[in-house]
Amino acid sequence: MSPTPFTQPPHLNQLSRRRLLAGLAGLSVATGLAGCSPTGGSLGGGQSESVSPVNMEEELKKPATITFWSWSPGLDTQVKLFEKKYQNIKVELVNPGQGPPAYQKLRTALGGGGAPDVAQIEFSYLQSFIVTKNLLDISPYGANDIKGDYVDFAWKQVSAGDAVYAIPQDSGPMGMLYRSDIFEKYGLEVPTTWAEFEEQAKKLREQTDDVYMANLPPNDSGAVLGMMQQAGSRPFSIASETEIGINLTDEGALKWANYWTPLVQQGLISNDATFNNDWYQALATGRYATWIAAAWGPAYLQGAAASSAGKWRAATMPQWNAGENIAGNWGGSTSAVIAGTKFPAAAAALAQFINHDPESTNLLASKQLLFPVLKSLLSDPAFTGQEVEFYGGQKVFELFAQISDTVPQDYQWNPFQDYVNTKNDEVLGGTISGKEDLAQGLERLQADIVEYAEKQGFTVKQ
Amino acid sequence: MSQPEGRLKRRPSAIPYLFIAPFMVTFFAMLVAPLGFAGYLSLFRTQLAGGTRFVGLANYAEVFTDEAFIGGVLRMLRYLLVQVPVMLVLSLLAALVLDSGLLRLVKFFRVTIFVPFAVPAVVGALMWGYLYGPIFGPVAQLFRFLGLDPPGFLTQDGILYSIANIAVWEFVGYNMIIFYSALKAVPPVLYEAAAVDGAGPVRTALWIKLPQLLPAIFITVLFSLIGTFQLFNEPNVLETLAPAAIGRSWTPTLYAYNLAFIDQRVEYAAAISFVLGAFIAAVSLVFMGAVTWRRKKQS
Questions:
Q1: ipTM attached to this prediction
Q2: For residue A198, what is the domain's CATH number?
Q3: Is the pLDDT of residue A99 over 50?
Q4: pTM
């Protein structure tokens, strides 16, 4: 055997642009954590030092060359629109890959030089870059002027009081995608509560061993935290730059764990690793009756499970209490301006243009297939009225636009999401794979994350 | 030895240094300087909240109580015991058969056995990952078709063997080539003598070829030893398929990688790397010492 050199971990799935949203991303935020400003916003750590507004019109006439890192395919179209509008600004678009490798590259560049001026960063990772003071507060560059145009939960993900650390690009309000053919074959009804979901799972198992009601992924903290978010869990809170709250065993989390444990143990649901070839095939061939997914799921499935076209439908997530209407959020990204940019005005203008200009955002929705965060798009019949054939002509985007309003507003992330993701796979993922008690998995995960946070110098409130 | 006087008196010339400069510059810039820098780094600790401070040998102290690291090293020892013997025995057999002269199409078999080594490790691991797939992997499908439970390739219990299997597949050809070329260097007189004494192919293999191969076996064991502790690509690729079975610290190098790039604990990762390096050096030295000692005893 010969020595094997280090390589970048091939963080999978070429298949999907969507993984970006998917993988790690984002829920939304934390319970009224102290420390953040009273006006809301879920990011912590940044005190806006009441900077006076910059005269953007003047600034943007000056020549500038900026670099933009984004993994969204085909974004050069939008970049050209920007360059056309601001003739003196040149933009170099770079695709750094998506998910963890992209952040590793960004960190390396931040440490060693060559960092971009604007970077695509998921909601769940913003706090990780704020803690290292790498993101610029772009409120002096007019960011707050467009605040009201975004759905509230998305704006809260990028702001701390009046400080704005990024412009939201897309989001992932969660819903339930299901196979109408499987539901019909086994006489299942679309569950509106988790209790009904369990009943249907049992009904399904009585008739067949080949189909699972759902799959609980052992390797996706984004999905799991999103589901826990719906149950009321707010595991992270940012009190100050050095003080954080970590509670992965709060009431909502345990409600979630105690519900899913018996389902896993009775084999009513599967526990397959997701975003790999086996899983794509499983989705396509009908191994799962439902996929608890997010708003990017409808577009994603069309690529990942193309052969199952026409069989899928979408619905809201089952609720914990009948009559409620609460979703979670899984995924979503932003354009953030990197502190240390030589052209903050141009960079801020690009971040805003890409995610606010009508032509650019229309393209984000129609070409990059990103789920919009702009209120205007979410209420635009041209977007919501699309009858998607993959979903038997259902207006899935209309449904998810409605779900978007039911995402909790107060979800916060932590300053070390990379660690939380990998540790989740190892610890909670181990519990799921081993069909053990999920609550115990969460307890262990909690202990590990607290230990890590303390090693990193944080004061932790549990 | 006495030197001609003229030579001694000649003024020291810069020319030799110019000739070795390319090597020395590269050597220092690419090897010594990074090592020195990593060593320097390993004496500090940077916290996300709290900044950087000098901690002396605290990082090293942590390594020796770090269950994730020690667990990884022990796992590699187990892996070593499983993978290396299987791989070397297969390589040996392949080399002996190819060398026996009993086989047709020797070139074809030689190349075929060697081909997996030419496949990049990441590609190989991806391919095996597909074969191991628990639901739609071909093996799992075959087992289900026969009404059997598919083997748990990607489970906590099975993963060590699955990864060992990939490594065997990759490196059998490589080691076979080493053995095969060593066999080609065996003096023909030995074979002639054996034939005269009435030894058949099996006897020749056991009593002539194997002893002649000892130095080659020694070197392949040493390489395998070092390679084992550097195992990284295969578990790193399979991690996405078997997240819970592999996790963050399945091998010490994977752990160091995660520490540096996921946990942002570069300094601690440097300390881990030094300890791992020292450990590999120690194991190699012990192995070489044992072999030398045995040889001396024999002669």
A1: 0.86
A2: 3.40.190.10
A3: yes
A4: 0.88
